[in-house]
Amino acid sequence: MPTILSIKDLRKTYDSGFEALKSVSLDIEEGEIIALLGPNGAGKTTLISTICGITMPTSGTVTVAGHDTIKDYRAARSLIGLVPQEIALEPFGRVMSTVRFSRGLFGKPRDDAAVADILKRLSLWDKRDNQIHELSGGMKRRVLIAKALAHEPRILFLDEPTAGVDVELRKDMWAIVEKLRADGVTTILTTHYIEEAEAIADRVGVIANGEILLVEDKDKLMVRMGQKQLDVQLSAQLKHIPQALTKYDLDLKDEGWTLVYRYDTKAERTGITQLLTDVSSAGLQLRDVVTRQSSLEDIFVSLVHKDAEDAA
């Protein structure tokens, strides 16, 4: 697929000297869903604000479908829809007129059929005549998405779109993003919910301290960096790991009832057979053996933790 958003060596340094973005480069393909994960203060919102023209970069370039966001601002911005973290809506405005107004801000001619289509896709049609203050928090977020889509953008930024939203509504939002993909809309979302990225993203980017640590296909990332964990559940409680087993770098959990062994899924040998033999030789009796694959959350935590250690 062609590249629709290209970020080259983007930097943002504030007057205080704080570097919010440090040489960020990223290409995003048309129609993909990419999730940006990072702790608070990582630079996620600054990156989105800079791409959308809300914040001016110190250096670097951003192009949207070939349009430079500074030199050709209007053309670039017309292709972008932004759903911010904060719910900032006129409380006494009505849903239909609120979305219609957003379309007009971009110079689009009035098209009630197009606005109606957006409201129907977002399950807002029945609420079209309601005032904003009459809506639930989840419905207000849907209105924000409708406003962002009103001018028919090709790229949609969702900055923490499901913050404070219950699990059921969060899944509804995921379904909305999938429908937008079917329409060819490219979606970039920032999120604190790892399961959100795991559920809907094609690629995952991890950002920390203003730097992109990696951007990779989600499934490939989990294969490349994932580990498996073997939980050896014991019949008797241990206070410490026997000397004969110290070579395996095991952990004790569940107050001494479980030995934890982590191994690389790509290694030629897992070492499990020898481990279980040595566990038996050490006089330990097994109650059960359970394996699990690393989640995206495990990978994210390890990457950010490593970056923090390197920065120190």
Sheet with the most strands: spatial strand order? 6-7-8-3-9-10
Give the helix proportion (percent range): 25-40%
By CATH reckoning, the class of the domain at 3-79 and 153-223 would read Alpha Beta
CATH topology label of the domain at 3-79 and 153-223: Rossmann fold
Rg over CA atoms = 24 Å
- One letter per element, helices H and strands E, the order comes to EEEHEEHEHHHEHEHEEHEEEHEH
Q: Could you report the average pLDDT, rounded to the nearest whole number?
A: 86
In DSSP terms (H or I, runs of 4 or more residues), the helix count works out at 10
Indicate the structural class.
alpha/beta
Biggest beta-sheet profile: 6 strands, mixed
Can you tag this structure with a few keywords?
single chain; 312 residues; alpha/beta; Rossmann fold; Alpha-Beta Plaits; six-stranded mixed sheet; four-stranded antiparallel sheet; 29% strand
Task: Walk me through the structure.
- The chain has helices spanning 44-51, 73-77, 95-105, 112-121, 137-149, 167-182, 194-200, 218-225, 272-281, 296-311; strands at residues 3-13, 19-29, 33-37, 59-64, 67-68, 80-83, 155-159, 186-191, 203-208, 211-217, 227-234, 251-253, 258-264, 286-293.
- By secondary structure, it is an alpha/beta fold.
- Among the domains are: 3-79 and 153-223, Rossmann fold (3-Layer(aba) Sandwich), CATH 3.40.50.300; 227-293, Alpha-Beta Plaits (2-Layer Sandwich).
- The strands form 3 sheets. A 6-stranded mixed β-sheet has the order 6-7-8-3-9-10, with helices on both faces. A 4-stranded antiparallel β-sheet has the order 2-1-4-5.
- A hairpin with a 5-residue loop joins strand 1 (3-13) and strand 2.
- 30% of the residues are buried.
